[in-house]
Design brief:
Elements lengths: L1 E5 L4 H12 L3 E6 L4 E3 L2 E5 L3 H8 L3 E4 L3 H14 L3 E3 L6 H10 L4 E4 L5 H16 L4 E8 L9 H14 L4 E3 L12 E7 L6 E8 L2 E8 L4 H14 L5 E3 L11
Parallel strand pairs: 1-2, 1-5, 2-4, 5-6, 6-7, 7-13, 8-10, 9-10
Antiparallel strand pairs: 3-4, 8-11, 11-12
Helix pairs in contact: 1-7, 2-3, 3-4, 5-6
The structure holds NADPH dihydro-nicotinamide-adenine-dinucleotide phosphate (NDP) and the ligand O=C(O)C1=N[C@H](C(=O)O)C[C@H](O)C1.
Family: Belongs to the DapB family.
Catalytic activity: (S)-2,3,4,5-tetrahydrodipicolinate + NADP(+) + H2O = (2S,4S)-4-hydroxy-2,3,4,5-tetrahydrodipicolinate + NADPH + H(+); (S)-2,3,4,5-tetrahydrodipicolinate + NAD(+) + H2O = (2S,4S)-4-hydroxy-2,3,4,5-tetrahydrodipicolinate + NADH + H(+)
Subunit structure: Homotetramer.
């Protein structure tokens, strides 16, 4: 597969390039900040991305950047007919609308977390919340000190999953003050420290017992591997909006 990697000099961009090279793929790096070479891969300037897509015709693009550049890259992919895998998080509603617009022309797969275990976490959370509707729920996510968006994209996905199961709950971010917990609220806590790749813990408590569901990524390589699998799966698909769960073995599609 020939794959273009945007945000090539970022933490995830470098990780995806390493994984793609390891798997024997042809890689085109794209960066807004530097050109040259990384791991034997030529890094092309972002302003030439649209031309590069037309001339080099990659099978897919993998993007881990920021919301605005991500939407811009995917819009160029739509114009050139190149499938887009998007790992970027922190999108607004307006960003999602633009990504959905692009998905009318090309297949787009956006996922807040490309670790396969997170699909297991989402299923476990759905089941636990359904089985224990009166238990208090608190969510804690922990990431490296360079992460910008909070709560994480994965945390937001977990919160949406809880809402889908037991109805919309008020979210209390980083609780403080002088009042007991309100019934039904969900506490959301974001920690930033060191080089932690990503940890999400859902705590359910009640009836003098606790249930803790935790996913911990051991390295960023986990996300890069999932994104590459998604790109291989997405290449050649029809235009549309796809979820990472669609690519996994027990999926119906
Ligand atoms: N879905 C998942 O599984 C995962 C998602 N993520 C998400 O991926 C995103 C990136 O994370 P991470 O790699 O740690 O972040 P980094 O800050 O390390 O990398 C982001 C890269 O985006 C590019 N960029 C920044 N500003 C601009 C701009 N104005 N125009 C174009 N490109 C720009 C830069 O690369 P360059 O200078 O080369 O252009 C930068 O290095 C985040 O949203 C994070 O939450 C992270 C891990 C896993
Ligand atoms: O920024 C990160 O590093 C990560 N971001 C994703 C998120 O926001 O959920 C996924 C993963 O936890 C790592």
């Amino acid at each position: 597969m020939k794959v273009a990697v945007t945000g090539a000099t970022g933490r995830m961009g470098r990780e995806v390039i390493d994984a793609a090279r390891e798997a024997g793929h042809e890689v085109i790096g794209v960066s807004h900040s530097s050109t040259g070479e990384y791991a034997g891969v030529a890094i092309e300037p972002a302003e030439e991305f649209a031309t590069l897509l037309e001339e080099r015709e990659p099978d897919a693009t993998i993007d881990f950047t920021l919301p605005d550049p991500s939407v811009s890259y995917v819009t160029d992919c739509a114009a050139a007919g190149v499938p887009a895998v998007v790992g970027t998080t922190g999108f607004s509603e307006e960003h999602y609308e633009e990504l959905c617009e692009a998905s009318k022309a090309i297949p787009v797969l956006q996922a807040a977390n490309f670790a396969r275990g997170v699909q297991g976490l989402l299923s476990a959370v759905r089941e636990a919340v359904a089985a224990l509707p009166e238990y208090d729920v608190e969510l804690t996510e922990t990431h490296h000190n360079g992460k910008r968006d909070a709560p994480s994209g994965t945390a937001n996905r977990v919160l949406d999953t809880i809402d889908e199961t037991r109805g919309e709950s008020p979210r209390v971010h980083g609780r403080e003050g002088d009042a007991p917990r309100e019934e039904g609220e969900i506490g959301v806590h974001a920690r930033r420290a060191g080089d932690i790749s990503g940890e999400h813990e859902v705590l359910l408590a009640g009836n003098h017992e606790e249930l803790r569901l935790t996913h911990r990524a051991g390295s960023r390589g986990v996300f890069a591997a999932g994104a590459l699998d998604a790109a291989e799966w997405l290449a050649g698909r029809s235009p549309g909006w796809y979820d990472f769960s669609d690519t996994l073995p027990d999926s119906q599609s």
